[in-house]
Design brief:
The structure is a single chain. The protein is α/β, with parallel strands linked by helices. 33% of the residues lie in helices and 27% in strands. β2, α4 (72-81) and β3 (88-92) form a beta-alpha-beta unit. α5 runs parallel beside α6. 37% of the residues are buried.
């Protein structure tokens, strides 16, 4: 089964990963949002937006937000989730082959990197760097437990980003890995004059 067919089959259900109902997903989303080092971003991009639950939350923090997903069903669900948020654009795309123009000051890879072949993840990391605005931030969150559809591990995905940018934070538990990278290594406290 191709990637597109796999994800389209999943998104025949409204919420196949139970993003709306599982405490694990709610907690992961809260940690992701809390990890953002700035309150607002001018232009954000979420790769692997799924059904748009995180997208809707990121939209509250971005002046403009692009969200992309491989699955048509996920794109339709994300559009429904963000209906009325005119500053949000949801597009179907396969990465790294399809790539948006311009630069972003926030790029979020939400549990999508390990679905890529290792060479595609390597290319994605390199292209993310070229799409990052000066002092922009990259956030990635991935499930650490191996599973059948994963082509590479969370550690591999994050290692590709480590090779391209300085890491500015890291959170790890038995289930997930949440990390951020930026050329601006100034801490939140330092930015606000607390140290």
């Amino acid at each position: 089964m191709s990637d597109v067919a796999y994800f389209n089959a999943l998104y025949e259900e409204e919420d196949p990963f139970q993003y709306r109902t599982r405490w694990y997903e709610q907690r992961k989303r809260a940690l992701t949002l809390a990890s953002l080092p700035r309150e607002r971003f001018a232009r954000g991009w979420e790769l692997g937006c799924a059904n748009g639950v995180l997208t809707a939350a990121l939209a509250e923090r971005c002046d403009q937000l692009l969200a992309t997903d491989l699955s048509k069903g996920a794109v339709l669900a994300a559009r429904a989730m963000t209906r009325g948020q005119t500053h949000v654009s949801i597009e179907q795309a396969r990465h790294p082959q399809a790539w948006p123009a311009g630069r972003f000051d926030l790029i979020v890879l939400g549990e999508m990197g390990y679905y890529l072949a290792p060479e595609d993840m390597h290319q994605t990391a390199a292209q993310v760097v070229t799409s990052l605005a000066p002092q922009g931030v990259v956030i990635a969150c991935h499930w650490r437990v191996p599973f059948e559809q994963a082509r590479c591990s969370a550690a591999f995905v994050h290692g590709q980003l480590d090779a391209c940018l300085p890491r500015v934070f890291s959170y790890r538990d038995e289930d997930m890995l949440l990390e951020g990278w930026s050329t601006d290594t100034t801490s939140v406290a330092a930015r606000e004059g607390l140290r």
